[in-house]
Amino acid sequence: MRVLILGTGALGCLYAARLAAQADVVMLGAWAEGVDAIRAAGIRVIDPDGRAWVARVRAEHDPEAAPTADVALILVKSHQTRRAAAWAARRLARDGLAVTLQNGLDNLPALVEAVGAPRGAVGVTYNAATLLGPAAVRHVVSLPTYLGLLPARPCAGPADAAQARLGALAGLLNAAGLAAQVSADVEARLWGKAVVNAAINPLTALWRVANGELLARPERRRLLAGLACEAAATARARGVALPFADPVAYVESVCEATAANRSSMLQDVERGRPTEIDSISGVVAAEARRLGVAAPLTEAVWRLVQAL
Ligand code: KPL
């Protein structure tokens, strides 16, 4: 399979390095330092068990230089989705599939606008990774990736090109050591992840602490729980059947599983880069307002992180 990975950040590097042994992988990115470092010495990965290894991967700055792809994985920050989607549209095979694996709730519409609904899909990943520098990534914890189509459509068998591609991609990811499965209700997974991100990411960014530190004090836990409940209530008001019964217990379990990780939003703040707060808390707050759900904490952290 020919795989194009858009984005040379932590998850872009992780997916590219892992998939390189299983597929023809090309990375495409606008961050010159990242692309140049990948070209010069490959991607350096530190696995969750501390093992370090290097993967050689082709990387390009210019979409015209990238070959046609069967699958494009969108792993840029959400404010860069439109450009990445336009680049993917230029390189994707006619029966190819572009999959957003990003945080946030507003990436698929931008992707579909560029590649067309039949060629757009969603992935939700719980893998936690830290960018150590250009082309260097620490895989902090290995957790599953869920893939699916939105709106959900019944599988029409092997003739359904998008379903077949998703199945093949899940197989490839599993073979590459990244656990993945196709989900029949990926909207539930998307909102499940949004509940996690709407609770963990703003607080870690505001307090500059690793995920596990959110559980260290009762006052932190109370705010974490409040944010999780607001996002979960919004998802339920939308009719989404979340993949967990208790949002607080679930978000706390993710804090434990990713305790050592500095969230992607904290990493953005520390690098002085735009955060994904509008695509996470901003969309939750807007949906809450639309559906008449009270979400004052979400509104507050959205504005506080914007002001950073
Ligand atoms: O998705 C994440 C992120 O940092 O964006 C979590 C799951 C919170 C891991 O840090």
Can you write the helix and strand succession as a string?
A: EHEHEEEEHEHEEEEHEHHHHHH
Second CATH tier, the architecture of the largest domain: 3-Layer(aba) Sandwich
Number of helices: 11
Query: Which regions have little confidence, pLDDT < 50, spanning 5+ residues?
Result: none
How are the strands of the largest sheet arranged? 5-2-1-6-7-8-11-12
Which cofactor or ligand species appear?
Answer: ketopantoate
CATH topology of the largest domain: Rossmann fold
Total beta-strand segments: 12
Q: What is the terminal-to-terminal distance?
A: 42 Å
Summarize the amount of helix as a percent range.
40-55%
Q: Provide the number of structural domains.
A: 2
Q: Find the structural class using helix and strand composition.
A: alpha/beta
Strand percentage lies at 15-25%
Largest sheet: 8 strands, mixed
Fourth CATH level, the homologous superfamily of the largest domain: NAD(P)-binding Rossmann-like Domain
Q: Rg to the nearest angstrom?
A: 18 Å
Average pLDDT, rounded to a whole number, is 95
CATH class of the largest domain: Alpha Beta
Given the C-alpha coordinates, what overall shape results?
Answer: globular
Commentary on this structure:
The protein is an alpha/beta fold and 308 residues long. It has 2 domains: 2-184, NAD(P)-binding Rossmann-like Domain (Rossmann fold); 187-307, N-(1-d-carboxylethyl)-l-norvaline Dehydrogenase, domain 2. It is 46% helix and 20% strand. The protein contains 11 helices and 12 strands. It has helices at 10-19, 32-41, 81-91, 107-115, 161-175, 186-207, 218-237, 247-257, 264-271, 278-291, 296-307; strands spanning 2-6, 24-28, 43-46, 52-55, 58-60, 69-74, 92-100, 120-125, 128-133, 136-141, 145-148, 180-182. The strands form 2 sheets. The chain has an 8-stranded mixed β-sheet, with helices on both faces. Helix 6 packs antiparallel against helix 7, helix 6 crosses helix 8 and helix 10 packs antiparallel against helix 11 (296-307). The longest helix is centred in the middle third of the chain and has 22 residues, at 186-207. The chain is globular and about 50 Å long. The model has no long low-confidence stretch (mean pLDDT 95). Residues 103, 126, 128, 196-197, 200-201, 211, 254, 258, 261, 263-264 line the site of ketopantoate.
